[in-house]
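Would you mind giving me a polypeptide sequence along with per-residue structure tokens?
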Amino acid sequence: MMTSLQHLRLISISIVIMGWLPGWAMAQVQAKSLAKADSEAATLSLVVAKNEDPADGFTGRGSPSRRSSGGSRGDCSALLVALVPGDTALAVSEAGCSLPSSSEPALTTAAMPVLWFHVPAHTAPTAGEFALLDDTQLALSVQTITLPQEGGIVGIQMDTELDIDRTYNWVFSLLVNPRKPADNPRVAGTLQRVNPGADVLSEINGAESLQQQAEIWLSQGIWHNALTTVATLRQSETEQTEQQWQDFLGSAGLEAIADAPLQDCCR
């Protein structure tokens, strides 16, 4: 059951994003219920077994699924952040960037979607690792990715096709501590591929612009499609598309890292 705080936050999302979201709050409730068995109480047990084990050695038990890698005494640019809906906003105070924010389930219609992350700058070449897990926490795919040293927003395209109406978990980590891999910064979340239906596809195909497509995806609560569309719009580097990007991330509590540049990486 949704708490009053969650209800108010979902309503605010539908109001803030340029009036795009009349049905977004209801769609988010549906998205959360789709992964109820795996993400109840924001718990993700990431015990990866059998034939594939993510190279960072993560064997946490009962660890919460979170979209930020921790707190920071500086600004939020030092954090690894997954661009997914969350329970609390990333915010900067006198004490620094806020403590970890839990991630919420998100939807896609793509067979091999792009997931977006904010990665911090590093003084040396750094690799990241993206692991796709099934609902038993068995790794289906592990991708090692070379990240830009200057940091910013990167899009990582999955190399494994998702089944429709199946729930998946994922973990993305920075491989910066080979001696203590459990200390590597990491974020985790849940996603599900859905069939948008003929009516929605007809609307998308009939849209006159990417902005209209983004509005349609948002109205359906399809987070990953909407985000990728808005990211594509941002690449045109106009004042309007930059504002759309800022509004989109701000509505999900990610305003603190919205100024980070998009990097041509990882796809």
